[in-house]
Amino acid sequence: MATADSLSSPVHPAWVRLSHWVNAIAVIVLVLSGWRIYNASPIFAFHFARDFTLGGWLGGALLWHFAAMWLLVANGLVYLVANFASGRFAVRFVPLRPAEIIADLRAALGGRLSHGDVTRYNAVQKAAYVGVMMLLIVAVVSGLVVWKSVQFPLLRVLMGGFDNARIVHFVAMAGLVLFFVVHVVMVALVPRTLATMIRGH
Ligand code: HEM
Fold it and tell me: Count of CB atoms within 10 A of residue 132's CB?
């Protein structure tokens, strides 16, 4: 039951909740419009079913993609700066020890991982959330190379060239989709975490 004390200090402050949902919407729009853009010039021997894409045609999908990209970058910067400046990152996501990740992963797979305390992330959650932050940074940087290859020669070289940047961008997208599926399944298994990300408590 919520106590007066637990209600005065939310599990997730309002700026975390707001930026989380803005981020989730931006990623969903980016992935669905990205699939439509990919279909116009596939790099692998398959394309995405049109019904699961956004934008209708290449030009429309590009408009959605860039709009959501600016949203993701602006919102992501606010989230990261606020997280580090407030010290929340150090409290919530550090330390991140491989031995603890493996132990918690084993416990989770065996159904033995406790979700009693929603104010702390276990090592698997920490790794997944820090991992998805890094994945989003890779997606943005590789996307920048695909978009403005000539203007960002150093980034292009770091990405192994334009063609490779497209593959890196695709792999980052695949990682995000994998994260999304596992993340939503985990939330469905522990639904009270959803209340903390909506109402704070
Ligand atoms: C691709 C889209 C998404 C990304 C990148 C994402 C990323 C994240 C990250 C990084 C956190 C930790 C935030 C922090 O504490 O600072 C988080 C937490 C959370 N997310 Fe998402 N998320 C996404 C979509 C969703 C969706 C669709 C749902 C709802 C079904 C959801 C529900 C939650 C909940 C409930 C938490 C808190 C978990 C807990 O307290 O144990 N997320 N998400």
Answer: 18
Q: Which residue of 137, 183, 184 sits with most ligand 1 atoms within 8 Å of its CB, as the best mutation to test the pocket?
A: 183
How far apart are the CA of 85 and the centre of ligand 1, in A?
21
Q: Is the dihedral of CA 194, 121, 180, 108 positive or negative?
A: negative
Q: What is the pLDDT of residues 139-186, one digit of tens each?
A: 999 999 999 999 999 999 999 999 999 999 999 999 999 999 999 999
pTM here?
0.94
Helix (H) or strand (E) holding 71: helix 58-85
Residue 53 contacts residue 33 (beta carbons within 8 Å)? yes
CA distance 2 to 17: 19
Here the tokens at position 147 are 């978009």
Work out which ligand 1 atom sits closest to the CA atom of 198.
Answer: 35
Residue pLDDT, tens place only, 90-113: 999 999 999 999 999 999 888 888
> In a mutational test of the pocket of ligand 1, which residue from 19, 20, 138 has the highest number of ligand atoms less than 8 Å from its CB?
20
Atom 25 in ligand 1: residue holding the nearest Cα: 24
To 5 degrees, how large is the angle CA 33–CA 36–CA 42? 130
